[in-house]
């Protein structure tokens, strides 16, 4: 009987323990996950997605939107971040409740390299379990959770201050691109006469019919109070009759300043243009550039846009509920853009552009380099290039100007200026016939013509006769010694330096001997060849002055002074007796080389001329012409002499 009683007591105790376990309050959840959820809700701009305790009927989401409206517009909807910095250990109450404090770190990327960072604090409470189920952490809602010290009804105001754009200047201090007074000329639909203004403006500015009709259509479709810009013109631009335009009813001119070159077309393909940021530029900037910002759109203006653009100033203030002076929350002082210095010489560039001015239907270019320093003095692309930077980016077969590189390879293989070579009317390589240019002088032909005469008159067949003795790799290496096919890392702008394949066989290799086949060069690359010959070492050209700790590139080619001296002598023969005798009256002339590269059906040719005069190496390129001597030669003469 006693055993039964004991067993019964044990069973009751066990059952009682199970009942106690079943009705025990669930444990208090850790506050850290709740703090993370609140941070996510704040970052999303939806604080009401988290359980909040309220002392007002105002909507937390609406308050958030009002407070941050201008800031979000300034930095982007997805720019701000909110993270949990810390959560204090929870404090348990006697009735199953608990409290904790969460500190949040806010980051707003208000500028390219600057963020507004601050911290706010939220009081978290745990109300306890309900019906045996764990409760949910809640946060006490107050506007100070958004910005420290923010009172109900207050909001943030953001004011952006635009920096002055940096100038593009020469290394000697002359301004090439700077702020220039302009007028935005357009039609104001709030003014009488706007409906007939397009036709009258077209007459004053000599627009064609299609342009005038397009302006009229844009004006017609614009809003009732719209200003439709038609053209931006420089102040006192003689090409446009601004006063006559202003006399037209409905036409207005809004004064402004824009970063423009000193002359309308001055080095435009190189320097580039400035305008309102496109949607693509805004998107690619990842918040650095806002809609309406002025940015570089092409050329150096685009390549150095960040340096030139500077950093906008930004003032974030807390605006009080009922007027009064705002309280400063965060400020960035604007930083004006830094200038970009280039090696262009104003007078040399203007001479180059004047020499190309009449070539309006074909791509053309002149590049000039100062051999002693590698400074690029002129980078001009003619009007026929239609805005493309032919001078540094246009790749074409260099024709006989490449014979400078071929000659270097031959000199390295033992040929001397007095070595005789066969200069015949034609030469056959694996079934392909090569010949000299039309009009090649009979006096410079024969079975044993001195190499200096062959070079001076540019005998194709003599050079091709050596294709078995000179490998394609040797051609490649010789070209590289002259700076052709080797990128100049310190050039400072978009540029291509050509391509000379290291492998080619048969007729392709034979064509390479005279600068055709797969050999390509830009005017800049061939100017570098001439500069290397002049300097007596491989020249690495540079255009943009290095900034900060950057240093100019040290030439690393293997051209020797003796090799360059021989090449200068050969180029001198071109002026004394060959295809560039028209340059004999150029002051300081040292030497030259002409080039003609057939293309298409063989009846068309790219034409080139290289020249060295004193401490100047230059190249003229024209997309199509008769011969280098007859088409490019006169342009080179005009450039070197100025007349």
Automatic annotation (TrEMBL):
GO terms for biological process: antibiotic catabolic process; cell division; cell wall organization; response to antibiotic. Its EC number is 3.5.2.6. It catalyses: a beta-lactam + H2O = a substituted beta-amino acid. One of its GO terms (molecular function) is peptidoglycan L,D-transpeptidase activity. The keyword Protein transport does not apply. It comes from the Bacteria. Keywords: Antibiotic resistance, Cell cycle, Cell division, Hydrolase, Membrane, Signal. It is found in: Membrane. Residues 365-640 form the Penicillin-binding protein transpeptidase domain. The keyword Hydrolase applies. One of its GO terms (cellular component) is plasma membrane. It is an enzyme of class 3 (hydrolase). Residues 161-316 form the Penicillin-binding protein dimerisation domain. Belongs to the transpeptidase family. Belongs to the class-D beta-lactamase family. PANTHER family: PENICILLIN-BINDING PROTEIN 4B, PEPTIDOGLYCAN D,D-TRANSPEPTIDASE. This is Beta-lactamase. It comes from Promicromonospora soli. The lineage of its organism: Bacteria, Bacillati, Actinomycetota, Actinomycetes, Micrococcales.
């Amino acid at each position: 009987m006693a055993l039964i009683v004991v067993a019964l007591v044990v069973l009751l105790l066990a059952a009682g323990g199970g009942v106690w376990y079943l009705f025990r309050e669930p444990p208090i959840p850790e506050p850290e996950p709740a703090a993370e959820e609140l941070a996510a809700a704040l970052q999303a701009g939806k604080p009401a997605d988290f359980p909040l305790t309220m002392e007002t009927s105002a909507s937390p989401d609406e308050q958030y939107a009002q407070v941050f409206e201008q800031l979000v517009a300034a930095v982007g909807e997805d720019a701000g971040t909110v993270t949990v910095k810390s959560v204090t250990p929870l404090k348990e109450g006697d009735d199953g409740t608990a409290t904790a404090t969460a500190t949040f770190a806010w980051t707003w990327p208000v500028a390219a390299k600057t963020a507004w960072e601050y911290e706010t604090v939220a009081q978290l409470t745990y109300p306890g379990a309900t019906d045996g189920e764990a409760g949910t952490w809640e946060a006490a809602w107050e506007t100070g959770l958004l910005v420290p010290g923010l009172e109900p009804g207050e909001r943030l105001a953001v004011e952006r201050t635009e920096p002055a754009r940096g100038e593009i200047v020469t290394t000697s201090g002359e301004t090439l691109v700077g702020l220039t007074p302009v007028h935005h000329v357009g039609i104001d639909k709030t003014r009488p006469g706007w409906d007939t203004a397009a036709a009258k403006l077209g007459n004053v500015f000599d627009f064609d019919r299609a342009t005038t009709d397009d302006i009229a259509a844009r004006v017609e479709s614009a809003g009732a109070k719209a200003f439709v810009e038609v053209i931006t013109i420089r102040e006192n631009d003689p090409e446009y009759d601004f006063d006559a335009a202003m006399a037209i009813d409905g036409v207005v001119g809004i004064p402004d300043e824009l970063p423009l070159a000193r002359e309308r077309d001055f080095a435009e393909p190189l320097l580039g243009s400035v305008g309102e940021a496109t949607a693509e530029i805004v998107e690619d900037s990842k918040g650095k550039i806002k809609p309406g910002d002025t940015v570089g759109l092409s050329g150096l203006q685009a390549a150095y846009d960040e340096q030139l653009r500077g950093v906008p100033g930004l003032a974030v203030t807390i605006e009080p509920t009922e007027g009064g002076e705002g309280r400063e929350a965060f400020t960035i002082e604007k930083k004006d853009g830094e200038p970009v210095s280039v090696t262009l010489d104003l007078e040399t560039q203007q001479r180059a552009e004047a020499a190309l001015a009449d070539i309006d239907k074909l791509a053309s270019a002149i590049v000039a380099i100062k051999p002693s320093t590698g400074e690029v003095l002129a980078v001009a692309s003619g009007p026929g290039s239609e805005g493309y930077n032919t001078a540094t980016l246009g790749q074409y077969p260099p024709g006989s100007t490449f014979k400078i590189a071929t000659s270097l390879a031959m000199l390295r293989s033992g040929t001397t200026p007095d070595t005789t070579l066969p200069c015949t009317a034609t030469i056959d390589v694996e079934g392909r016939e090569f010949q000299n240019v039309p009009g090649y002088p009979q006096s410079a032909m024969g079975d044993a013509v001195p190499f200096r005469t062959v070079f001076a008159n540019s005998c194709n067949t003599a050079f091709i006769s050596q294709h078995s003795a000179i490998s394609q790799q040797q051609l490649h290496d010789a070209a590289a010694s002259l700076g052709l096919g080797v990128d100049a890392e310190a050039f400072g702008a978009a540029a291509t330096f050509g391509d000379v394949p290291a492998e080619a066989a048969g007729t392709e290799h034979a064509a390479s001997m005279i600068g055709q086949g797969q050999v390509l060069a830009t005017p800049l690359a061939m100017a570098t060849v001439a500069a290397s010959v002049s300097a007596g070492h491989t020249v690495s050209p540079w255009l943009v002055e290095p900034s900060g700790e950057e240093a100019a590139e040290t030439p690393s080619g293997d051209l020797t002074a003796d090799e360059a001296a021989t090449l200068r002598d050969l180029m001198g023969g071109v002026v004394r007796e060959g295809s560039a005798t028209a340059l004999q009256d150029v002051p300081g002339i040292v030497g030259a080389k002409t080039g003609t590269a057939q293309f298409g059906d063989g009846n068309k040719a790219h034409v080139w001329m290289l020249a060295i005069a004193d401490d100047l190496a230059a190249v003229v390129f024209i997309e199509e012409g008769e011969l280098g001597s007859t088409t490019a030669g006169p342009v080179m003469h005009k450039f070197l002499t100025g007349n």
